[in-house]
Every structure is written in structure tokens, then in C-alpha cells.
């Protein structure tokens, strides 16, 4: 691992994680290149900001659950290859019901050069500290659809409120939101704004 990168759970205590791309539970339907361990990796600066976000979330009765952090460039290349393969329908209904694979890139849901590869971007959600259950957000991780956009129509008041809680927590702690994905946040003062890393997560 690069010097300034760490496992998030070692620096930001009390944050849950489920590294989707290390599992079969993601839009490609299998573990993705470069994800050899179910751990979340990021820069030390990211972890410091996440620790603040965790404390802020706790004050509102929530915990943080991370789905992704640092993403090796080889994983992004794997996404590109996957997008060029024939549709088999295995993950379409859950992750991209209204678009084709290639359109994920055209519409900004997946990028050929991902901010995740710079080490200071996370995909995450909230869960209730009292119940341990994920907060309803009006759509799951990597649902590539307009309902995942900030300000989307067609979600309940409670779901919209939970998205706003997450956004407020993250923006207060130094992150920028991404319009198309309610779960995606990037550290404003990221330490490697122009570097795309490719070391695997092991």
C-alpha cells in the first residue's frame, strides 16, 4: 500500500463497511479486479474527515456504512471491459434498469478515470444506531438511475430527509457531493487531486 494510504477501519474507528466490489454483490456480478480483500482503503486525510463525519452522524443517531473508498485503476479498466460485453441481464434490474451498460459512462455513473482512484472519495450511507438497520434512502448503492440523483422526484419524505442528513454531515466535514449519486462524496482538499493509483487492495 502507498505510504499515505491506510485501511479506514484502523484510523476511523466505529465505521461499518461492506466493500461491494470485493464481493459478488455489485453491478458486474462478481469480485472486481484489484479488490482482493473486503476492506476499505483511503488516504489519511480521508480518514481524519470520516472520523469527524462519524461523530457528527452519531449526534443525529446515525452510524456510517462505507461501500467503497480507494479504487485501483485496474478496477476501473475492468468496468470498461465489462461494459463492452453482451448483456446477460444478471444485475440489470437492480443496478441499471433503464439504461444500457455503455450509457453508464456516458451519463456519469461510472468514469474511465475515477475520483475513487485518487484515494479520497467514498461511497457510503447511514444506519440507525438504535437498530443497526440501513436508513431508507430511496434506492440502493450503484442504482444508476435518475432516482439516485440529489433532489430526485419519486422518493418518500423520509428518504429525502435521510439523504439530506447524509449530505449535511459530509459537507460540514469537508466533502463535496456528486449530483448523480446520493452516496458519493469527495474530500474537497484531497491530497492527490491529479494522481490515479493502481495498487491492489490486499
Automatic annotation (TrEMBL):
Its cofactor is Zn(2+). Zn(2+) binds at residues 116, 123, 184. It catalyses: D-alanyl-D-alanine + H2O = 2 D-alanine. The keyword Metal-binding applies. It comes from the Bacteria. The active site is at residue 181. Keywords: Cell wall biogenesis/degradation, Dipeptidase, Hydrolase, Metal-binding, Metalloprotease, Protease, Zinc. InterPro entries: A_A_dipeptidase, VanX_actinomycetes/firmicutes, Zn_M74/Hedgehog-like. This is D-alanyl-D-alanine dipeptidase. It comes from Streptomyces chiangmaiensis. The gene is vanX.
Amino acid at each position: 500500500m502507498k505510504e499515505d494510504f491506510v485501511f479506514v477501519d484502523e484510523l476511523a474507528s466505529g465505521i461499518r463497511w461492506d466493500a461491494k466490489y470485493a464481493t459478488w454483490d455489485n453491478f458486474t456480478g462478481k469480485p472486481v479486479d484489484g479488490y482482493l480483500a473486503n476492506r476499505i482503503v483511503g488516504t489519511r486525510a480521508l480518514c481524519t474527515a470520516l472520523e469527524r463525519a462519524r461523530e457528527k452522524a452519531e449526534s443525529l443517531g446515525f452510524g456510517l456504512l462505507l461501500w467503497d473508498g480507494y479504487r485501483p485503476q485496474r478496477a476501473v479498466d475492468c468496468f470498461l471491459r465489462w461494459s463492452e460485453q453482451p448483456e446477460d441481464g444478471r444485475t440489470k434490474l437492480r443496478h441499471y434498469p433503464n439504461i444500457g451498460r455503455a450509457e453508464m459512462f456516458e451519463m456519469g455513473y461510472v468514469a474511465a478515470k475515477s475520483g475513487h482512484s485518487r484515494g479520497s472519495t467514498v461511497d457510503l450511507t447511514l444506519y440507525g444506531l438504535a437498530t443497526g438497520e440501513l436508513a431508507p434512502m430511496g434506492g440502493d448503492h450503484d442504482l444508476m438511475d435518475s432516482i439516485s440523483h440529489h433532489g430526485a422526484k419519486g422518493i418518500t419524505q423520509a428518504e429525502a430527509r435521510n439523504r439530506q442528513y447524509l449530505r449535511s454531515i459530509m459537507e460540514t466535514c469537508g466533502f463535496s457531493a456528486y449530483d448523480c449519486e446520493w452516496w458519493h462524496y469527495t474530500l474537497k482538499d484531497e491530497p492527490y487531486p491529479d494522481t490515479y493509483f493502481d495498487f491492489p487492495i490486499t
